Amino acid sequence: VLATVTPSAPSAIATTALRLSANDAAGAHALAHGRPVDDDLGAALRIMDARASTLDGESSVALTEITNLVDSHAVSRPIDRLARVARVAALRAAGRDQEADLIDDEFMRGGGDPATPRTETEPSVPVEAEPERPAEPQPPLFGRSLADALDDAWARVRRQPLQGALDPLTDRARIEGLCDEAVALIGAGHTESAEATLLLHMDTVDAQVDAGGVVVDDFFVLLAGMFDRLGLTTEEAATLERLRSAHQRAGSELPGPIEERLVEIRAMLDDLG
User: Rounded to two decimals, what is the model's pTM?
Assistant: First the structure.
């Protein structure tokens, strides 16, 4: 599907993320290498190119590219976070776990990357950038019947056939890295690219469940949370229902807080319908 859309930075990000999730470094390089850094999208692609270098075993090249990008361009907080994820991955690939741990610990305390320390007076948003505004919530039914709204939501998040061989998502560090990339896209306002990327990962999870693997909740929960933020209640419900279906096929239980949220949404929609 991504190969058929008009070439653009958002579609390139979604396709590059797919290549990275399949450990296809050459494919990711072909899409992201040498992209101009005119905005957050260009910066994200350059960082993803660095991730591809790490996959290629060129962690030193990746670290140099990330450092040059952060030092040479004013990057937003979401892109700064994406750079941190790529830097940590490159450091770990180079066997420099202690430095990677320092960066992770610093971020957990909210202080940023030790390599680019923040001062107490530094603003959280670059001076030249406008503060990010949350998307305006939208009515969940848009004048449709509840049945039609749910049908549309299911069509939006439906499972698609997996292209290529199954590359199971079982490594926790890799899963967290993919989630961080999607969070960066959401934070930068590129929700369509984030949605496409998360749906691709959800398709992989469904395929690995069919092959006898375990359910990875992260991508479903992240997409449901994005829909919640956008006020798309039926889409949130459909996403969590799809996660429940994956758990049922795997013979596992939907985690309690997710089940509670799904019950809450269904009650809300019943009131609307």
Answer: 0.53
